[in-house]
User: Fold this.
Amino acid sequence: MSGARMAVVIPAWNETQRLRDNPFHEFVAAQTSVDLRFVDDGSTDDTPARLAVLATRYPGRIQILTLSKNRGKAEAVRLGLLAAISEGYPLIGYLDADLAAPLDAMLTLREALIKAPQLELALGSRVKLLGWSIRRSERRHYLGRVFATFASLALGLPVYDTQCGAKAMRASPAVENALAMPFLSRWLFDVELIARLRDGAGADTLREVPLARWEDPGGSRVGFMAFVRAPFELWRIWRRYPVEGRPSLR
Ligand SMILES: Nc1nc2c(ncn2[C@@H]2O[C@H](COP(=O)(O)OP(=O)(O)OP(=O)(O)O)[C@@H](O)[C@H]2O)c(=O)[nH]1
Ligand SMILES: [Mg+2]
Assistant:
């Protein structure tokens, strides 16, 4: 079963500096059942040309979906995943172009879905355990822990890390349904995706999978304002997807 076909969606917005060809080519050569679907999110730098070169070496296996203007990561990922479902892949997932989570992480997540057929979503989780290689600056780690605590409260689920950019799903009707509408939030869409599946498929279809390796390569374009806006966005999500049995603000 480990050969189940999977499409990994990689959103890319002005990634000329961070995009490297080799890891993608080596991965596609070694993993013949996993294809890559880049979404060029209205880039204004050389990203389209770089992606075109990347794709020519493995026609069909690496493809580019081009958005004519920048729609933000949430919409880029959502459109890429819907395109992969319509291509007929039984498993789909997404990963950041900076490869903070390495491509191998998608194999770990795919394995989790294959081993447990009841799961709809396997979430990569950056759990900093001794002997594992999870490398983030102290500042981002602790800010991340504060955010994760509030995200967990807003979802009413014991989730450790909603924001890791590596997630895999089954291309099921429940997942397709969860992706049908644009997300409310541009950056916290992972929290929304979890809420939608919690409500549409049940909390027991979601599983976090600790990743062995995660390393921030730097160069993030998520500015300070994203951290300032995060509590407000989380509040909007909590209001829009109330936790059953708990008071809603609506
Ligand atoms: N910043 C940004 N990234 C986008 C956008 N659309 C797609 N992306 C992609 O989303 C992924 C995440 O971007 P990063 O800037 O690394 O942000 P992040 O990983 O969420 O945050 P960090 O933890 O700060 O690195 C990358 O693959 C980007 O190319 C967009 O409009 N803005
Ligand atoms: Mg990043």
